[in-house]
Design goal:
13 helices; 7 strands; binds magnesium ion; alpha/beta; globular; single chain; binds adenosine-5'-triphosphate; seven-stranded mixed β-sheet; 262 residues; Rossmann fold
Length: 262
């Protein structure tokens, strides 16, 4: 059975839209018929709450108690499975560090057991060992980037983190795509920073995600925008990015990948 394509949604800026994007890409891919596992690596446990569920120590149960993945995941929507997180995730990260866990931790503890999925998505915290492990394991990196100064700074830091990790681990570079966030093209700030991103990342800049109150409302209700406001343009934007990702996943070249990852 082919192994899943791993999408890591990350940047070093808090509040950049990582979880919103991870949840909507996971939900959008599942709606398009893919079998999806969404893994929450952040102690805030927001993947669960954004999908109307309670945070739970499932990542802790996997990494510390070594319980089996199958009994920890929950199907939260058709085709969409969640490995939830909560504050215990911080304990799991400390535990992993004390045991000198390597960057391939998620490869062994999770991905080797994630059988039958088309996609695994990692929602990460903005720093730390688990973020590093998710970068290590990614087939495609997705960097949500608010089009303002702090967002752009977080993106620059993230690119450096990725490069350092790849050098340290001897990994082949992994494709990194930018998702411009909270875009309002009526403002000079959005237009200016979007242009900077396009100059720096070229065709690796995906469709900008507009700033929308309906998205905040959907999240507060524990629903996706696809359910809360099906006609909203922002839902179509996320669905379009999902279609792009399916295309990238289908055509991705992976020469030497297994050797590089050991
Ligand atoms: N398109 C959007 N328009 C307006 N608000 C949005 C949009 N997308 C996300 N938000 C809001 O932005 C805030 C931050 O989003 P989110 O929690 O996804 O960021 P994050 O990067 O995961 O944060 P953290 O670093 O805390 O994990 C949330 O309050 C969310 O409701
Ligand atoms: Mg988050």
């Amino acid at each position: 059975m082919p192994r899943p394509v791993v999408l890591t949604i990350s940047t070093n800026k808090g509040g950049a839209g990582k979880t919103t994007t991870a949840v909507h890409l996971a939900a959008g891919l599942a709606l398009s018929g893919a079998r999806v596992l969404l893994v929450d690596l952040d102690k805030q446990g927001h993947c669960a709450t954004f999908l109307g569920r309670d945070p739970a120590p499932r990542l802790y149960d996997l990494l510390v108690k070594e319980r089996s993945l199958d009994e920890l995941i929950v199907e939260v929507r058709p085709n969409l499975h969640l490995l939830a997180s909560n504050s215990e995730t911080l304990v799991a990260q400390d535990f992993a560090r004390l045991r000198n866990a390597q960057a391939d931790l998620l490869q062994h503890a999770l991905l080797a057991k994630a059988v039958g999925y088309d996609f695994v998505l990692f929602d990460t915290p903005p720093q730390g060992l688990l973020q590093e492990c998710a970068i290590y394991s990614a087939d495609i990196l997705l960097m949500p980037t608010p089009v303002d100064y702090p967002g752009m700074d977080g993106a620059a830091q993230f690119v450096q983190v990725v490069q350092k990790l790849q050098e340290r681990e001897g990994l082949a570079p992994v494709p990194l795509y930018v998702i411009p966030m909270f875009v309002d093209l009526r403002t000079t700030e959005s237009k200016y920073n979007l242009k900077l991103l396009q100059e720096r990342f070229g065709d690796h800049v995906l469709t900008p995600v507009p700033v929308r109150t309906r998205m905040r409302e959907a999240i507060a209700e524990g629903t996706t925008i696809f359910e809360y406001a099906p006609g909203e343009d922002i839902g179509a934007v996320y669905a379009g990015i999902c279609a792009t990702l399916r295309g990238l996943a289908a055509g991705r070249a992976r020469p030497g990948e297994e050797a590089a990852r050991g």
